[in-house]
């Protein structure tokens, strides 16, 4: 069991003990209204375990934990409101008809459940979009990494160093998001960068300059395709 899970269980246990002590130590009339308020209060505490599990289940990164906070917030707000209302109804149980707390507490539970489900759906959608974005930028990030390394390998020709630096900047500031329309161009660009690496290592300055020029042309075409697809 993780430390966070243990903390949540400990919190729920303390809340249950405190709730029961207050409910049964204070001399309150134990009628039907009291027991309805008591049951919903206990349920609100126990549901925190479910809400926290849904909110932070498998959340390892800071980003995924952040996405779980809206769900946890709804659960905590519901729990606090329900417990406070349960105590109020228990104290006024001789004067409150049984049907009133049943309707109010059921609606509160339904609203909290709907809110948690909606928040969970939104978080799931955002996480999927983040995963897709990571995949979409992987190709250009890989090319950028190769170019960063390549720039540091040149120290003989100022002309080649300048050409590589310009190509590196062009790649760095190009649209990082890939798509089906750019896959072929990116594959060709990556192949050229690999050829360029070999040419630089072999000291073939003229061939390297020619490959830089060709790579810049393909990159320009890729940027044009990216812009065109965004305008559609």
List its salient traits:
7 helices, single chain, mainly alpha, 232 residues, rod-shaped
Structure summarized in a few sentences:
With 232 residues, this protein is mainly α.
Kindly report how far apart the N and C termini lie: 51 Å
- Fraction of residues in H or I helices: over 70%
Mean pLDDT: 82
Q: Which stretches are poorly predicted, pLDDT < 50 over at least 5 residues?
A: none
H and E order = HHHHHHH
Number of strands: 0
Q: Radius of gyration from the CA trace?
A: 31 Å
Main pleated-sheet profile: none
Structural class assignment:
mainly alpha
Number of discrete domains: 2
Shape: rod-shaped
What's the tally of helices? 7
Beta strand %: under 5%
Indicate the topology.
Layout: H1 3-25, H2 32-56, H3 62-91, H4 99-151, H5 158-172, H6 183-201, H7 205-231
Helix pairs in contact: 1-2, 2-3, 2-4, 3-4, 4-5, 4-6, 5-7, 6-7
Description:
83% of the residues lie in helices and 0% in strands. The chain has 2 domains: 3-133; 152-231. It contains 7 helices and no strands. The chain has 232 residues and is mainly α.
């Amino acid at each position: 069991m993780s430390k966070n899970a243990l903390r949540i269980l400990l919190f729920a246990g303390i809340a249950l003990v405190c709730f029961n002590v207050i409910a049964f130590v204070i001399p309150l009339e134990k009628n039907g209204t009291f027991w309805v308020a008591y049951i919903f209060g206990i349920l609100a505490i126990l549901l925190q375990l479910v809400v926290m599990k849904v909110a932070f289940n498998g959340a390892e990164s800071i980003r995924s934990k952040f996405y779980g906070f809206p769900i946890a917030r709804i659960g905590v707000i519901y729990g606090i409101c329900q417990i406070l209302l349960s105590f109020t109804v228990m104290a006024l149980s001789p004067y409150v008809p049984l049907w009133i707390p049943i309707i109010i507490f059921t609606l509160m539970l339904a609203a909290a459940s709907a809110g948690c489900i909606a928040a969970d759906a939104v978080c799931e959608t955002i996480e999927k979009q983040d995963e897709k974005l990571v995949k979409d930028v992987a190709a250009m990030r890989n090319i950028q990494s190769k170019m960063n390394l390549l720039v540091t390998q040149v120290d003989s020709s100022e002309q080649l160093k300048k050409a590589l630096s310009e190509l590196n900047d062009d790649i760095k500031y190009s649209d990082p998001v890939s798509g089906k329309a750019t896959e072929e161009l990116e594959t060709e660009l990556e192949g050229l960068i690999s050829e360029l690496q070999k040419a630089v290592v072999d000291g073939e300055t003229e061939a390297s300059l020619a490959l830089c020029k060709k790579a810049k042309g393909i990159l320009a075409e890729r940027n044009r395709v990216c812009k065109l697809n965004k305008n559609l």
